[in-house]
TrEMBL record:
Domain of life of the source: Bacteria
Protein name: Lipocalin-like domain-containing protein
Length: 132
């Protein structure tokens, strides 16, 4: 029963209209929550620390120190999709919340075993990077 208020809070954010301009900034991962069939693990920080630059032209520049790579991104309703230059899906997320300073993305993961009723996902918590 304790999960119902949290579920309601997440659904409220998931159903809110997402604005593409809210995403256009530089973000870094603060923590990642992994869930698998009732077991959860929160890890803090990101090693290596990749900066995600969501650009107005629909490109995503992922930067690690002086190295970088480009992907494309698309935000439709509450779904954020990364694609390569051949329009193949690289990653797909559900946007749980987005604000001026924070972003929460959920990624469904495939179960480890072939049994039914398995639930496995990851939630990435990102914060905006203020570049000088």
């Amino acid at each position: 029963m304790r999960a119902l208020p949290l579920l309601g809070f997440l659904l409220l954010f998931a159903c809110a209209e997402k604005d593409l301009t809210d995403l256009q900034a530089a973000w870094k991962i603060d923590s990642v929550y992994n869930y698998y069939n009732g077991y959860g693990l929160m890890t803090y920080g990101s090693d290596p620390e990749i900066i995600y630059h969501f650009q107005p032209d629909g490109r995503l520049r992922m930067t690690l120190d002086k190295e970088f790579r480009y992907l494309f991104y698309e935000l439709k309703q509450d779904t954020l999709t990364y694609t390569d230059n051949k329009s193949r899906i690289v990653e797909k997320f559900t946007v749980l919340s987005i604000s001026d300073e924070q972003l929460a993305l959920q990624k469904k993961k495939t179960p480890l075993f072939n049994e039914k009723r398995q639930d496995r996902y990851e939630i990435r918590y990102l914060s905006k990077v203020h570049e000088d």
